[in-house]
Design a protein that fits this description.
This protein has 564 residues and is of the alpha/beta class. 26% of the residues lie in helices and 21% in strands. β9 and β10 form a beta hairpin. α1 runs parallel beside α15, α5 packs across α15 and α13 crosses α14. The radius of gyration is 23 Å and the shape is globular. The protein binds flavin-adenine dinucleotide. Flavin-adenine dinucleotide binds next to α1, β4, β12, α10 and α15. The site of flavin-adenine dinucleotide has 40 residues, from α1, β4, β12, α10 and α15.
Length: 564
């Protein structure tokens, strides 16, 4: 049996970066094991940016989206009226970047400085900026004409993008949306009239303000971790991609990891052996695999009859995510996207526009712009707004059938801390997941004030020609109690789980920040969103790509010193 130098479990955002960087050395043999399908980035449903809404909609399953999804669910959550919240993840090489909203936000300097202060030495913002730059090819700096179609040109010219914050030769192409819906102009003007400042680059020196999002897209198509990091190097003879294999356990010899056990689609099982095993299966599966392999809280493991390899109580704890509610509006014009008869000819043109020019509605995700604002008066934003030019809700993708728009209100740093525990010792049983929404210190205040800020923006004159009625929560929901009850009944997550194998040095830390090794073991590392000690103030894929780039350097450095 071939023995690899590195066996990477999970070909998502982090796994693809590692597979690329570690196989740069032709003497190193790398296996990348993925439970889902391979060669996904050439599929139209993956490439077309708008197709992401079909992944969430059961009625559109015939288009093939379910193949790229796997679903988890919380247990009944007391803080949200005992609802169980759906938690989708991507499935296949590319992982969640196959199905995500493509918005790229790094977060705030303070987020990473907090990681460092919590014990993740070497992970402050200044340590990470070179890796944020390394991962990206920031199109507006490569091609100065690439965003000349965007409105608010005078503001953008007055506030040029700072090249010190961006890379121009990395693997992931970042672009502005290619076709801006006219309603986004109304949003920008309304945000200004509501007293907010324009920001030409949310990933520059300041995050606060309103402006356009940057997307992981190229030429009107989605860029996935697979298309950015794997497709260009598929022919490396030292890289083996094993797709359709679901890893069920890490093989441990004492405290040393020796390989993994997997099950293929027919149910047959096999093993892959390696000198180093790296778990990159995401924030739900990486801690689950550690527990199934005897690494976790000893009382929990013994309760399920799993022999203890190492008592590590932090495994599965510290689960964090962004909380989100959306305010929905019906429009009286057909300017926002929708599926009416009057928009039928235009929608046909949109299809042709994407097929022939990679522009138009299908090159968009409808969330062209947004804002980072504060509900407390502090300079540091605590909410993120996503202005969507259609009633396409990430929770259920309902409604291209009427013309309307949505303002998503997301709380950037919620205090709810959840956890993930074993349901049983059967690896095919999903773990028990609890987010503890609005428990402990956590309250609905930021979301409630965020809804009020959103309403103030939508209440400005630029929306008067378009706005028919606020559908949800509805104008009658005015006071704190009404808004809190709306939030409890409707809040979901933005599908950004992190923290369940947190790096650090204290008793609850799982991973050593200097090497990504699992504390108390050898030959075993975790590199994915689960190692973030605290959620960042923005969508999580940028932080995941960046941490994987840095981890690859740490792993290569460890190898060099071991061989010296
Ligand atoms: C619907 C959705 C929308 C999102 N929108 C955005 C957005 O707009 N912007 C943003 O920044 N972030 C967004 N995210 C989040 C972002 O995609 C994730 O933060 C990021 O992909 C996490 O990377 P990861 O490597 O930790 O995990 P993933 O990318 O999820 O990769 C994990 C991989 O492991 C594989 N795997 C799982 N179990 C096993 C097993 N047992 N054996 C082998 N392989 C296994 C999975 O199939 C997957 O390929 C979104 C996520 C979702 C689901």
């Amino acid at each position: 049996m071939t023995k690899f130098d590195y066996v990477i479990v999970g070909a998502g955002a982090a796994g693809c970066v590692l597979a690329n960087r570690l196989s740069e050395d032709p003497d190193v043999r790398v296996a990348l094991i993925e439970s889902g399908p391979d060669r996904n980035s050439r599929k139209t449903i993956v490439r077309m940016p708008l197709a992401m809404v079909t992944f969430m909609a059961p009625a559109l399953a015939f288009l093939g989206g379910p193949k790229f999804m796997q679903w988890f669910k919380t247990e009944p959550e007391e803080g949200v009226d005992d609802r169980r919240i759906d938690l989708p993840r991507g499935h296949g090489t590319g992982g969640s970047t196959l199905v995500n909203g493509q918005i790229l936000i790094r977060g705030q300097r303070q987020d990473y400085d907090e990681w460092r202060d919590l014990g993740a030495f070497g992970w402050g913002f200044d340590d990470l900026l070179p890796y944020f730059r390394k991962m990206e090819r920031f199109e507006p700096l490569v091609d100065s004409g690439s965003d000349s179609h965007l409105p608010a040109r005078a503001e953008r010219e007055a506030q040029p993008i700072d090249p010190d914050y961006h890379g121009v030769s990395g693997a992931v192409n970042l672009a502005h949306i290619r076709t801006v819906n006219p309603l986004t102009h109304a949003f920008l003007k309304a945000a200004e009239l509501a007293g907010h400042r324009f920001n030409s680059d949310f990933n520059g020196p300041r995050q606060d303000g309103y402006g356009f999002y940057t997307f992981t897209q190229s030429n009107g198509e989605r860029v996935t971790a697979e298309s950015a990091y794997i497709d260009p190097i598929r022919n490396r003879s030292n890289l083996t991609i094993l797709s359709g294999r679901r890893v069920t356990k890490v093989i441990m010899d004492g405290k040393r990891a020796e390989g993994v056990v997997w099950q293929d689609e027919s149910g047959a099982s096999g093993e892959t052996r390696g000198t180093e095993i790296i778990l990159s299966a995401g924030s739900f599966v990486s801690p689950h695999l550690l527990m199934l392999s005897g690494i976790g809280d000893k009382t929990q493991l013994s309760g399920h009859g799993i022999p203890l390899v190492h008592d590590l109580p932090g495994v599965g704890e510290n689960l964090q995510d962004h909380l989100d509610v959306s305010v929905e509006y019906r429009a009286k014009t057909s300017v926002p996207y929708g599926g009416s008869w009057r928009a039928f000819p235009r929608n046909l043109l949109h299809v042709a526009n994407w097929i022939f020019r990679r522009r138009g509605l299908f090159a968009s995700t409808t969330a062209d712009g947004g804002a980072f604002l504060s509900t407390t008066g502090s300079e540091r934003p605590d909410i993120q707004l996503f202005f969507c030019t259609a009633i396409a809700n990430t929770q259920n993708a309902k409604g291209f059938s009427t013309h309307g728009f949505i303002m998503h209100v997301c709380q950037l740093r919620p205090d709810s801390i959840g956890n993930l525990k074993l349901r049983s010792s059967d690896p095919l049983d999903r773990p028990l997941i609890k987010y503890n929404f609005f428990q402990g210190k956590s309250t609905t205040r930021a979301l409630r004030e965020g809804v009020r800020i959103a309403r103030k923006i939508i209440g400005q004159p630029p929306f008067v020609p378009h706005l028919d009625v606020e559908l949800s929560p509805g104008r009658e929901a005015e006071d704190d109690d009404a808004l809190d009850s709306f939030i409890r009944q409707n809040v979901g997550t933005l599908f950004h789980p992190i923290g369940t194998c947190a790096m650090g040095t204290g008793p609850m830390a799982v991973v050593d920040p200097g090497s990504m090794r699992v504390h108390g073991t050898s030959g075993l590392r975790v590199v994915d969103a689960s190692v973030m000690p605290k959620i960042v103030s923005g969508n999580t894929v940028a932080a995941t790509y960046c941490l994987a780039e840095k981890s690859a350097d740490l792993i290569k450095g460890n190898r060099r010193s071991e061989m010296a």
